[in-house]
C-alpha cells in the first residue's frame, strides 16, 4: 500500500498543518505494515504554476525547450504519485481565506481530463475513486458553519469540491482552528488536532 504525504505550509518547523499532517502519516505507518510513503514538500520544492506554454507543450509533435520539458516531467511525476497512492495526506494551511498557491499548483497537475476525471453525456465523472484522502487544516480564525466568518472559508470547501469532482468519497478533514487568536488557543487547537490524528483507523 502507498501513501502520498504533501505539505504546503511556508512556515517550516513552526507550521501547525505540518505537525498535524506528520501525525496523520505516522498513524497510518503504525497501523499499516509495509506502508510505502512518498513525501513531497510543495513549499520547499514548488511545482511551477500552470501556463499556456505547458498546455501547448502537450500537443502532439510539440518541440519543447529543455526548461519546458523539465516542467512537463515534473507535472507527470506529481500526477503519477497521486494516481499510484492509496492514501493521500495533505497539510493545508489557510492563507487569506483559501489554499496556498503552492497547493493550487499541485492540484492543477492532478485534475487532468482523461486521468482523474472525464466528461460524458451525463456531465463530469470522477476517475480517482477508491483513494482515501485526509487533510490537516490550519486556520488562524474560526470558520465553522455556525461562525460569522463561515462565508469566507474557501479552503475546506474548495478541497471538498476538488476531491469530490475527481471521485474521492473517503475524505476526512482534521482542523486546528483559531491558531492566530493566541498562544493558549493555538496549543489547544494543535493538541486537539494531533489527538484526532492519533485516533485515525487504517480501515
UniProtKB/TrEMBL annotation:
Keyword 4Fe-4S set for record: no
Binding site for FMN: 9, 15-17, 94-97
Gene Ontology molecular function: any one: FMN binding
Record field: catalytic activity: 2 a quinone + NADH + H(+) = 2 a 1,4-benzosemiquinone + NAD(+); N,N-dimethyl-1,4-phenylenediamine + anthranilate + 2 NAD(+) = 2-(4-dimethylaminophenyl)diazenylbenzoate + 2 NADH + 2 H(+)
Pfam families named among the record's database cross-references: Flavodoxin_2
Cofactor(s) needed: FMN
Domain of life: Bacteria
N-terminal signal peptide: none
Keyword Flavoprotein (UniProt): yes
Matches recorded under InterPro entries: Flavodoxin_fold (IPR003680), Flavoprotein-like_sf (IPR029039), FMN-dep_NADH:Q_OxRdtase_AzoR1 (IPR050104), NADH:quinone_OxRdtase_FMN_depd (IPR023048)
EC number: 1.6.5.-, 1.7.1.17
Keywords from the UniProt entry: Flavoprotein, FMN, NAD, Oxidoreductase
Domain Flavodoxin-like fold: from-to ranges: 1-199
Gene3D superfamilies for the chain: 3.40.50.360
Cofactor remark: Binds 1 FMN per subunit.
PANTHER family hit by this protein: FMN-DEPENDENT NADH-AZOREDUCTASE 1, FMN-DEPENDENT NADH:QUINONE OXIDOREDUCTASE
Family: Belongs to the azoreductase type 1 family.
Subunit structure: Homodimer.
The name this protein goes by in its record: FMN dependent NADH:quinone oxidoreductase
Source organism: Hansschlegelia quercus
Encoding gene, per UniProt annotation: azoR
Amino acid at each position: 500500500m502507498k501513501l502520498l504525504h504533501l505539505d504546503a505550509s511556508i512556515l517550516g518547523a513552526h507550521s501547525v498543518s505540518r505537525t498535524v499532517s506528520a501525525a496523520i502519516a505516522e498513524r497510518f505507518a503504525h497501523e499499516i505494515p509495509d506502508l510505502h510513503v512518498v513525501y513531497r514538500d510543495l513549499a520547499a520544492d514548488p511545482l511551477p504554476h500552470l501556463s499556456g506554454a505547458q498546455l501547448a507543450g502537450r500537443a502532439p509533435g510539440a518541440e519543447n525547450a529543455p526548461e519546458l520539458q523539465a516542467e512537463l516531467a515534473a507535472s507527470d511525476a506529481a500526477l503519477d504519485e497521486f494516481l499510484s497512492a492509496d492514501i493521500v495526506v495533505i497539510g493545508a494551511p489557510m492563507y487569506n481565506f483559501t489554499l496556498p498557491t503552492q497547493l493550487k499548483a499541485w492540484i492543477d497537475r492532478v485534475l487532468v481530463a482523461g486521468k482523474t476525471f472525464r466528461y460524458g453525456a451525463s456531465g463530469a465523472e470522477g476517475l480517482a475513486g477508491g483513494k482515501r484522502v485526509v487533510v490537516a487544516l490550519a486556520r488562524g480564525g474560526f470558520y465553522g458553519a455556525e461562525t460569522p466568518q463561515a462565508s469566507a472559508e474557501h479552503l475546506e470547501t474548495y478541497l471538498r469540491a476538488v476531491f469530490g469532482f475527481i471521485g474521492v468519497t473517503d475524505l476526512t478533514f482534521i482542523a486546528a482552528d483559531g491558531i492566530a487568536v493566541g498562544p493558549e488557543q493555538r496549543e489547544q487547537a494543535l493538541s486537539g488536532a494531533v489527538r484526532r490524528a492519533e485516533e485515525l483507523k487504517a480501515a
